[in-house]
């Protein structure tokens, strides 16, 4: 099936099998490998992207369902080679260790801060509830998001 | 994960969706996909045709009638229900949706999908039973209405037959509702849950203890009466790695009492 999507401002058109998951389309067909596959069961959130303004897990939908949509992935956050405020805050506060969950964390935090620019700690923790980190214990991730919101 | 090969259809109307679903034995409706895509990965379900309902605006409305009845389109997402001014007429709807999984899953997962998958650990089947909701099902021979307490037929089975579609859920007016659960981790899979509605009589629907929600009615919302009703139901819940049958039976009483207490607090 023909699928046309705009990802990070660039329009792509590809012929896609209906069975292909959106995460595989992004990584394998468009070579946007920033979004990760952690669990492939919808639990870990490493594949989180924003589609038409809505945060979702891209391993839990088909690529053909994204036809006509506008998608934001982690590759779209930095502008002209400069980390954005949120990314810089993750760096400054050491909000990652192995970094595997980071693309998903950044997209969930991006969606959260758009919705709620001044979240409390409880709201931050709830906002990244769908993203699992096995290294940090979340403390520095929460600190980073708090710092980016200030 | 690479899914088994599957055909994909994007109907333009409920009528076309129903036609596609009845034409193919192996057709399944695709709502939010937060359950179905996963079971397809595990090959626990292998539909031949996916009929994607996401383009059907007629399934996405939330309406509040002048008498307080809330109508929810089957394709309304949990997040949409949480944010809906109309749905606040029956506050428990948004409160329970906020306890389902996480932001991403609530953004895609739908009310219709949650009830139609009828996983015994889901939140919305017992809620709809306790509220006395009405489920509207459309097929090629027209529409029919099924009371929620007759809608859930077995594990993963509902009154929606092959070639049919749940289109809307109507929830009668009321405010005194409660919901309590014991889950695996915060907002995780429920071990036992209970929804209560104290609007006139007391209705308590207990989930995770049988193939379908168990509806109990008592005249009194007092703790003793609720406990007696749960004990009198002779529950025979399953045992698994998370909880033994005895523990689930114990929790059923606990969450039923909590749900009724919460409902009374709102009267």
Structure, explained:
The complex is a heterodimer of chains A (150) and B (267). Chain A contains 5 helices and 5 strands, in the order ββαβββαααα. Chain A is an alpha+beta fold. Chain A has a 5-stranded mixed β-sheet with strand order 2-1-5-3-4, covered by helices on one side. In chain A, α2 crosses α5 (139-149). Chain A starts with a strand and ends with a helix. Chain B has 3 domains: 7-51, Uridine Diphospho-n-acetylenolpyruvylglucosamine Reductase, domain 2 (2-Layer Sandwich); 62-171, Uridine Diphospho-n-acetylenolpyruvylglucosamine Reductase, domain 3 (2-Layer Sandwich); 177-265, CO dehydrogenase flavoprotein, C-terminal domain (Enolase-like, domain 1, 2-Layer Sandwich), CATH 3.30.390.50. Helix content of chain B is 31%, strand content 27%. Chain B contains 10 helices and 14 strands. Chain B has helices at residues 14-23, 36-41, 78-83, 92-97, 103-108, 111-117, 124-131, 148-151, 223-232, 245-265; strands spanning 7-9, 27-30, 49-52, 62-64, 70-73, 134-139, 142-147, 152-154, 157-158, 165-171, 177-183, 190-199, 201-207, 214-218. Chain B has a 5-stranded antiparallel β-sheet. A 4-stranded antiparallel β-sheet of chain B has the order 11-12-13-14, sandwiched between helices. Chains A and B meet through β4 and α3 of A and α2 and α5 of B.
